[in-house]
Specification:
This protein is an alpha+beta fold and about 210 residues long. The protein has six helices and five strands. A hairpin with a 2-residue loop joins strand 3 and strand 4.
């Protein structure tokens, strides 16, 4: 029975042995290029340019020589072991890393430490004074403003900023200005109640 010429593979004039030799040679060439690239990459220093900054952290002046790309979050956790400031999304969307810089709340994962020369940073570890909890810390306990607790340091720091900035006039305003701090446990009702309590206590102290 004759073979249909339309179904026969084209004759490229290449033997199986020649094809295998060519494939092996190409693979060896590609591997050599990969090795050369890897050696070149190893020759480039891993770190970036270094800068010197002085930052007051929780009332204590600190001087650092650090990679210019270091975020404030990494500086606090990796260099100072202030792990109360939590790593969340690393995109400034969850608020777990909130701290105060010169009294204003910021997401520390988005702020380069090199830009804070001369600034004052307050973390959750520096909020209490003389062994006495800050009114906001106590209010979170009194109102069950946390469940798992992971977001709580950022929530408290943001709440302190919310009151200080004058954005705690009503529960609706508190919810609006605390909306950047996410709680996966859904403890928002207790959080709002805690901010109201701490706000009232702070105002009462200021009036006395």
């Amino acid at each position: 029975m004759a073979t249909d010429p339309r179904s026969a593979p084209p004759d490229l004039g290449i033997s199986r042995r020649s094809l295998l030799k060519g494939t092996a040679a190409s693979g060896a060439s590609a591997f050599g290029a990969f090795q050369a690239g890897a050696q070149e990459a190893e020759a480039v220093p891993a770190g970036g340019p270094e800068v010197e900054v002085e930052i007051t952290i929780n009332g204590r002046p600190e001087r650092f020589t650090l990679d210019a790309r270091t975020t404030l979050l990494d500086l606090l956790r990796e260099r100072l072991d202030l792990t109360g400031t939590k790593v969340g999304c690393n995109h400034g969307q969850c608020g777990a890393c909130t701290v105060l810089v010169d009294g204003t709340r910021i997401n520390s994962c988005l702020r380069l430490a090199a830009t804070l020369d001369g600034a004052e940073v307050t973390t959750i570890e520096g909020l209490a004074e003389a062994g006495e909890m800050h009114p906001m810390q106590q209010a979170f306990i009194d109102n069950d403003g946390f469940q798992c607790g992971y977001c709580t340091p950022g929530q408290i720091m943001s709440a302190v900023g919310c009151v200080t900035e004058g954005h705690a006039g009503s529960e609706a305003e508190i919810r609006e200005y605390m909306s950047g701090n996410l709680c996966r446990c859904g403890a928002y009702k207790g959080i709002v109640a805690a901010v109201v309590q701490a706000r009232d206590e702070t105002e009462a102290r200021g009036a006395s």
